[in-house]
Design a protein that fits this description.
120 residues; 7 strands; single chain; 3-stranded antiparallel sheet
């Protein structure tokens, strides 16, 4: 997905509980990156009822462009949803957005959003 990106996950009760207990986390994988205006920080939001709740911010380091043909340059960012557990409701999709901090820099990026299990 190109930035800004939005992805929703339909969670069953078991996976919802795992997210709420930090046994499952979100991973943001930046597969390619081209900063256009510096600084080019990225922001991850949880989207609930059309309202965005900021989860975290991160930056690519070193700050230089890379392509999908350079998989060794990919950056992975692990995001916990424990602090926002009360916002995540059963029967509703879990929607996440990733984009550039509009007040800061801008650029282009290709990302992937995954859910992974964490060690118990």
């Amino acid at each position: 997905m190109k930035l800004p990106a939005k992805q929703c996950f339909n969670l069953d009760a078991e996976n919802l509980q795992a997210l709420q207990q930090d046994h499952k986390r979100v991973v943001i994988v930046v597969q390619s990156f081209k900063p256009l205006r510096l600084p080019a920080g990225l922001v991850v939001w949880l989207v609930v009822d059309n309202q965005r709740h900021e989860l975290t911010r991160f930056a690519i380091h070193p700050l230089r462009a890379f392509t999908m043909q350079e998989p060794e340059r990919q950056s992975r960012f692990l995001v916990s949803l424990v602090e926002q557990a009360s916002l995540i409701k059963a029967g509703k999709p879990l929607c996440l957005e990733v984009g550039f901090d509009g007040s800061q820099g801008s650029g282009e990026a290709e990302i992937m959003i995954e859910l992974i299990n964490t060690p118990k």
